[in-house]
Structures are given as structure tokens and as C-alpha cells.
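It is worth pausing here to work through a concrete case rather than discussing structure prediction in the abstract. The textbook approach is simple: state the sequence, then state the predicted structure, then interpret. We follow exactly that order.
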Amino acid sequence: KLAGCTLFITGASRGIGKAIALKAAKDGANIVIAAKTAETHPTLPGTIYTAAAEIEAAGGKALPCIVNVREEQQIIDAVEKAVKTFGGIDILVNNASAISLTGTLETETKKVNLMMEVNVRGTYLTSKTCLPYLKKSRNPHILNLSPPMNMNPVWFKNHCAYTISKYGMSMCVLGMAEEFRGEVAVNALWPKTAIHTAAMDMLGGSGIEKQCRKTDIIADAAYCILTKPKSFTGNFIVDEDLLREEGVKDFDAYAIVPGHPLMPDFFLDVEGDKKLSGSQQEGPSGAKASSPVAETFRVIQGTMNEEYVRTIQGVYQFELSGDDGGTWYIDLKTKSGSAGFGKPPVTADVVMSMSSTDFVKMFTGKLNPTMAFMSGKLKIKGNMSLAIKLEKMLTKLNSKL
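Step two, the predicted structure:
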């Protein structure tokens, strides 16, 4: 269906962008790989040239272009080169994106600029530059990898700048779909669950892939959208919902670990969890002596060892709300470690705020810490890398808790 079509894909050297490119390449499409990575990155896989080799091996034609979407001239040069090489542009996929999951006071100005310039401005300028050529195509499409605009404050309070930048991409869909109705289809696509990419590995740490789906699900959903007529426009599409409508029934095929619980992605509300019940008896120091929280800390204290202290070197303070609330701590920096009620013996490196119910769920393996953070159930201040280290320790504790 996409044979001979030219796709201009930003951020196509790896991850979701490359997966969409490879899917189209199997039809014999022309792919313009508009991405920054021209030389091997020390931690991230792939360059525009390795992606080009994979695309051509899959049956497509590839044009690798060095494009930082923050630089308008680089976008213009790549679009002109694409038109000169392939005769036009039929599809634009705005996939390039920057992320920083930090609160307003913790987000450096350069990070704010990066997210706004890549996500909003880059999407807008790339669309603007491609539109004169898209309008000449028989079935032109713009597809932004951006979410439905969910005005639930929970999606703003923990990472306001990131949310604004992603919703900016979605507002481009809202506006351009109307502006170019009948001429160019403009839609948004977003995953229902976390997708396993290098970015997700950095955000979630080791083991996060078990809760993710492969990039194939996004590629298949994108293919469905891009092969529809241009009258299909102005839609905010969730990958799984679309594929179900298209008749797909086996979603285990997309899972990294079939059957494993999956992490919902940002901006999609999930049903709230019911509260756990527990004893309300007061113990020494005002703590609930036989509460689920106190029992959890008792087990944590019993599992402390010098290896944890040596490898983690962090002090965690928990501000818990609800029935078994209060301040609790885990010290994995001092001597052989300690845990309990009250403030830690030394200044905390990380302060985590959440409900006591969700805390127990997190420490017993019923709530993934990354998911808790993404959904707003967990708020983190301080050293994020140490927060990720604690998650690794939790996997060892779960069986004992």
C-alpha cells in the first residue's frame, strides 16, 4: 500500500521512528531518516546510516539526513533533498521528542527549552516545511506521536513542562487537521502501554522492559492510519484501540514478556486502586504497630545487609498520607543500614511522597514504582538515579514481603 510513497520521519534512527520506517519499507516505500545521530552514541543504539541499511534490507529506499529539529535550516535542507531525491513527500511522521520528568522547580531552563523546541516548535516547523509538498500528494498524511489532551491535573503536577510540550504537539494536530481538511490528513498516535525503547530503559532502569510492549504495535497502528484516505483526519488514536477495531485479537504477540502486567503510558487515566484495610492500633512513637506499613518496614529492616548499603549508598525518606501516614525512612548509607518510623538519622538523598496504601503495594510488588510515578501516585524529590536504585532493591525484597 505504501510502495513508492515517500515518508519523512523525524527521530527515525532508533526506537518507534525506526519501527514505523521498517514497516513502510516492507511495502517498498522511500524513507527520509531525519535524525541527529550520525556517529555512534556511547549509550544509545543506531545511527541514521545503520537505520538506512536496515530500511534498504527490508525492501525500501533510504535517505539519511542529519536533522536536529531545533534548527530550521536543517529541516529545510533535508526536505529539499528529499524532494530532489524522491520527487516529493507523501507522509510526515513527527516522532522526534525530548523528555524530562521533573517538577517546575527542578526543571532547568535548558531542559524546558529543549522540550519546547523539539516537541512543539520542531513539530510545527517540520510540518510547515513539508506541507507545500504534502498538498501535492494523492493521499498525504501528517502523523504526530502525541497523546490525547487529557486535562486531568495529575498529568501536569509532576512534570508540567513535559506535559505542555507534548500537548503542544497534539494542538498542532487539532489546528492543522481543521486548517488543511480535505487536503492533508493530520492525526495523533499514542501507545496505551509503555513501549520498550532506549528512552524507556533510561527512565525505568533495568527490568522495565518486562512491563512494555515492542515498538511493532506502534508501527502496525501507524501503518493502519497512513494507509487510510486523507478524509481520516483530526483523530487522537490509541494504538491498541485502533488495532482492536481492525480485528487484531492477539496482543500477547506485542509484549516483551507475554502475560506480564503492562505499564500504562502517560496521559491515559487508569482506574484508581481500592484501599487496603489494616489495623489502626497505635504503637510506640505514634506509628501504627501492626499496620501494613509498619510490617513492611519491619521486613525491610530484617533484610538489611552491608551489600545493599555498599551498592546503593542512599538515604530515603517517605512522607506517607492516609491511615498509616507519617514520616518513615530507609538508610542505606550509614553503617549496616536501618529503616523505621520518623526522620532518617542523616539528611535524605531522596524524598518520596505517596499514600500508605500505595507504599505497601509498591513494596509488595503489586504496584510498579515507575508506573506509580508516571500516574502521579508517587512524587519524588532529590536524586532520581538513587530512586531507580531503590527499585532494583525492591525486586529482591518482593518475595520476602
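Step three, interpretation. The chain has two domains: 6-254, 292-398. The first strand starts at residue 6 and ends at 10.
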